[in-house]
Amino acid sequence: MKKKTAAVLLSVIACTILFVGCKQSKKTSEMKLVFAQDLGVNETANKITEDILQKYKEATGVTIEFKNHESDYRTWLTTQFTAGQGPDVYSGILYEMSSDYEAGYLYNFKDLYEKESPYDPGRPWKATLPDSILERMYVTPTDVPGYPSSTAVVRIFYNKTLFDAAGAKVPATWEEFIDSCKKLKASGTIPFAFPNASKNDLSWLWFNNSVCSQLNSAILSKADVTGNGFVELAEIAKAFDEGILDFTAPQIKEAFVLMKDFSQYWSSDYNGLEQKSAVEMFIRGEAAMVQALSTSLTSISANVGNSFEYGVMPIPVITSATSSYAMGKSVILGGQPDIIYGVNKALEKDPERLKAAIDFAQYMSSSAVQVRYAEELNRIPLSTSTKLPERLAGFIIIEEPLRLPYYTGISGELRDLFCRGGQMYLEGAYSVDKFAQYVQESYAAVLKNIKTEKGWSKENNYGLK
After folding, report:
1. Concatenated DSSP letters of 297-327
2. Domains plus CATH for the chain?
3. Rounded distance, CA 318 to CA 212, Å?
4. Could you tell me which residues come within 8 angstroms of residue 43 by beta carbon, excluding any fewer than 6 positions away?
5. Which residues pair with 148 in a beta bridge?
6. pTM for this prediction
7. Which end of the chain is more exposed for a tag (fewer CB within 10 A), N or C?
């Protein structure tokens, strides 16, 4: 992947579209909306957002008061809503927005999805979303907590120069992937910089989510009680208690075996290696591959420069040549709607402010705004109307969605337990059977606490309707 020059042209197009879109909004004098988004200390993201908000004000006359909390964003939001002072528009990840919707904080976007957005006219707003994302946004067939704008996609960055030197091909299947790792190792190159020092170094969680999903798709139809195509926390608790989700099952143990076999191609210090150091190994050309988010592209591109050619790829597809349990499709890591714009339900009492808030949410999730975030922050837009810069083409989602987040969708405690147990397994302290039992027991302990906290039980069907 080499640097491209299309960004300038895309910026011009984006600005033009933004101007046209905003002109469609009715000029509203002296209207002020409060908008909250957690951008942390990312100066570039904050600067871009402030500029976008200023352009919106110039086009519509609506002033946007931007609340960006560098820490405890969720605590602040909950406190504000509890006090009846929640922001007019704010963003969050799917789990948080769904919870806020159920708590009565968010306006239902269901009817908005059926109409066109002024910033993407000519078709219903819902038609601008990929099918896998669209189905994810419906909490129920009649309840939608907001509109998703972008995501961060996990990819394997690979050094094409090292691949070529080792005579290794860029793999599409798991069998080809392991063959390439063998050739890279034989050539004297570390095939993969795999960080596994703590739960914050996500490769162990990411890979296991994908590999287990590729071998264990049969449980989805049994565990998906709501029928929305995804197994969420309450359904996970139910499926686990009923033995549908069982980490001692042969297909999941086979996934663990594949990961153990793969580990022989990592740098020897993997259990002490952190994500930042792993990426630096890749940048220096010491390792042929590393796994990272699309948001890492800016730093990788700047530091690699022209020292070698690189590209990105998804986790390879496990086929029947590797496992009889294989479903023959890769599973996406990341790619979930993680920047969702929602509108405060309390605005229903003020139709004019509600209309303005909806327009602003549609503006922030428009293709033109997302092009700018893609160019400057490498966020991957979800709108099918958005043309990605060429350098981001490898991040287009082509895989199956992660329908059951085995290790990342439960709690921080479970992630920590899975990471520590995984370290023991990879070091040889646990056999695959002992590790599978360890995961089973860890799940039982964590879910017991969650069920108590949520008031879920078999008797009330885990809160499921």
Report:
1. HHHHHHHHTTSS-EEEEPPPBP-TTT-TT--
2. 6-150+335-391 (3.40.190.10), 154-333+410-463 (3.40.190.10)
3. 10
4. none
5. 340
6. 0.77
7. C
